[in-house]
C-alpha cells in the first residue's frame, strides 16, 4: 500500500543502520540484500539479509515533516511498549526487538530491527483458503485477542501515558482528536462535524459501562497475522494499542455490520456472546470512530485512489443513520 508516510532510506543509510544494530561485520555488500515489504499502510518495512545470512526486518517511522493524525503521534514508541507488555504478560506470539534507536542522530526518526518471520500474511492468502481454514484462523485471532485483553493498565488512554480516569473521558478525547484532524484538513465527511459530535454526546454515558482499563490491540485484523502450517505464528503492527474497552477491537466491527466482514468465528474464538442493547450502541460508536479515521486518513496519507475514502464515508453515513434511529446497521 502506497502512502506518503513511508520513510524510505538510501542503501548507504540502511548500511549504517545495520552496522549500528548488528555491528560492521553484519553489513552486506551489493544491492540485492534489501527488499521492501509492501503490505503495510503506515510505516516503511524492509526485509534485510545480513552478511551472515540472517534475515531481519527493519521498521522506520514516518518522515518528521509529514503530518500524521493525532493518534499516530509517537506511534513507534507505542508499538515498542506494546511489544514489551505483550511479551511480558501473554503467550501471544509477537516479534522480539533486536535493536531500537530513538536518538534521531543517524536518521531523524525512530526505527527498530526485529527477526524476519518466514510466514504468509493472512490478509494476502485468505482468498486462497477454504472456508473452514479461514474460520479456524479467525477463531484463533479471537482467542489471541482475548488473551491480549487480559493485560490491565493503570488508567485509560495511550499505553505510553495512560492518564484518563474513565473510559468515557479517554474515548471522548480520541473521538475529538479524529474530528479535529478532519477539520484541520477540510475533509468532507458527508455529515456536518457538529452532527457527528452530537451523536457521541447523546450516547457517551454508556461508555461508563467499561470500568477496567484493559490492553486493546485495536488493529488485529487478517493483514496483521502471519501464518504457517495452519497456525498463527506472529502478530505484527502494534502501534495503535491503548488501554480501553475491549469491545472496540476491530475484530468485533462485523458484529453489527456486514461491511466489515463476518465476525462470527472471531467472536466464537474470543468467547464473546451476543451484545446487550447498551453494548450495541457502544460498538456502533466505535465503528463510527473507525470509519471516521478510515475516511480522514486518506487525506493525510496522500491517497490518489478514492476507493477507501468512498467506502469509509459510506460507513460513516450508515452508522450515523443507525445511531440516530436507535438501531444497529444491517
TrEMBL record:
It comes from the Bacteria. Signal peptide: none annotated. SUPFAM superfamilies: Protein kinase-like (PK-like). InterPro entries: AGP_Transferase, Aminoglycoside_PTrfase, Kinase-like_dom_sf. Gene3D superfamilies: 3.90.1200.10, Phosphorylase Kinase, domain 1 (3.30.200.20). Residues 34-281 form the Aminoglycoside phosphotransferase domain. This is Aminoglycoside phosphotransferase. It comes from Promicromonospora soli.
Amino acid at each position: 500500500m502506497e502512502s506518503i508516510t513511508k520513510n524510505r532510506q538510501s542503501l548507504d543509510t540502511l548500511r549504517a543502520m545495520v552496522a549500528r544494530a548488528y555491528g560492521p561485520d553484519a553489513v552486506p555488500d551489493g544491492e540485492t540484500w534489501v527488499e521492501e515489504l509492501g503490505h503495510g499502510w503506515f510505516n516503511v518495512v524492509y526485509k534485510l539479509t545480513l552478511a551472515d545470512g540472517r534475515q531481519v526486518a527493519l521498521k522506520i517511522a514516518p518522515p518528521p515533516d509529514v503530518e500524521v493524525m493525532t493518534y499516530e503521534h509517537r506511534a513507534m514508541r507505542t508499538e515498542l511498549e506494546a511489544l514489551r507488555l505483550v511479551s511480558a504478560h501473554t503467550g501471544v506470539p509477537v516479534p522480539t526487538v533486536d535493536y531500537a534507536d530513538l536518538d534521531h542522530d543517524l536518521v531523524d526518526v525512530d526505527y527498530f530491527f526485529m527477526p524476519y518471520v518466514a510466514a504468509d500474511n493472512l490478509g494476502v492468502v485468505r482468498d486462497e483458503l477454504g472456508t473452514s481454514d479461514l474460520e479456524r484462523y479467525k477463531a484463533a485471532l479471537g482467542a489471541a485477542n482475548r488473551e491480549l485483553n487480559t493485560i490491565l493498565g493503570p488508567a485509560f488512554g495511550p499505553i505510553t501515558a495512560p492518564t484518563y480516569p474513565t473510559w468515557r473521558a479517554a474515548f471522548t478525547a480520541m473521538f475529538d482528536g479524529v474530528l479535529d484532524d478532519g477539520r484541520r484538513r477540510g475533509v468532507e465527511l458527508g455529515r456536518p462535524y457538529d452532527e457527528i459530535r452530537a451523536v457521541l454526546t447523546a450516547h457517551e454515558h454508556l461508555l461508563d459501562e467499561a470500568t477496567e482499563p484493559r490492553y486493546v490491540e485495536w488493529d488485529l485484523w487478517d493483514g496483521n497475522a502471519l501464518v504457517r502450517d495452519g497456525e498463527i505464528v506472529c502478530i505484527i503492527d502494534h502501534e495503535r494499542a491503548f488501554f480501553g474497552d475491549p469491545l472496540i477491537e476491530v475484530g468485533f466491527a462485523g458484529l453489527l455490520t456486514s461491511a466489515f466482514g463476518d465476525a462470527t468465528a472471531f467472536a466464537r474464538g474470543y468467547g464473546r456472546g451476543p451484545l446487550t442493547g447498551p453494548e450495541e450502541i457502544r460498538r456502533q460508536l466505535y465503528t463510527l470512530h473507525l470509519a471516521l479515521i478510515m475516511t480522514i486518513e486518506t487525506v493525510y496519507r496522500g491517497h490518489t485512489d478514492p476507493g477507501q475514502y468512498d467506502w469509509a464515508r459510506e460507513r460513516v453515513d450508515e452508522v450515523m443513520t443507525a445511531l440516530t434511529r436507535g438501531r444497529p446497521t444491517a
